[in-house]
Q: What sequence folds into this?
């Protein structure tokens, strides 16, 4: 179950990153950015594209490495920090659906990864009870 959740988080992040790299104007429009010039497009492709693809890949990696606790801890801290910045934006800059939805996703992701960081044995494969003697 938890492996599936991590795979889903990985695919969601990788998908957003890939879309940001391929169609930066589309994603910028969702956020409310106006990209002007090659520098802005390059920044969008690199940061929201490339970096978020790497984050998505790390979620997938956490499902296959033997001891994922440190990686899950790093992902938890990353998403907790994103949540803090997002919450500050809601208070300082005002409410937006995008910011609220992103905050909910980031809090949930921080919580899931923190839980698995502290209980990485939940990612161990289930024993095959049917083939046991």
A:
């Amino acid at each position: 179950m938890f492996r599936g959740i991590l795979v889903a988080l990985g695919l969601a992040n990788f998908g957003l990153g890939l879309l940001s790299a391929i169609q930066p104007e589309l994603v910028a429009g969702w956020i409310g950015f106006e990209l002007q010039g090659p520098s802005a497009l390059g920044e969008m492709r690199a940061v929201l594209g490339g970096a978020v693809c790497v984050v998505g890949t790390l979620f997938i990696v956490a499902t296959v490495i033997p001891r994922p606790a440190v990686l899950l801890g790093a992902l938890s801290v990353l998403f907790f920090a994103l949540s803090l910045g997002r919450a500050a934006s809601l208070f300082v800059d005002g409410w937006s659906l995008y910011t609220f939805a992103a905050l909910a996703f980031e809090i949930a992701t921080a919580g899931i990864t923190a839980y698995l960081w502290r209980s990485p044995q939940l990612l161990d494969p289930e024993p095959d009870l049917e083939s046991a003697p």
Observations:
- Residues 2-123 form one domain.
- The chain has one domain: 2-123.
- The mean pLDDT is 91.
- The two ends are 25 Å apart (CA to CA).
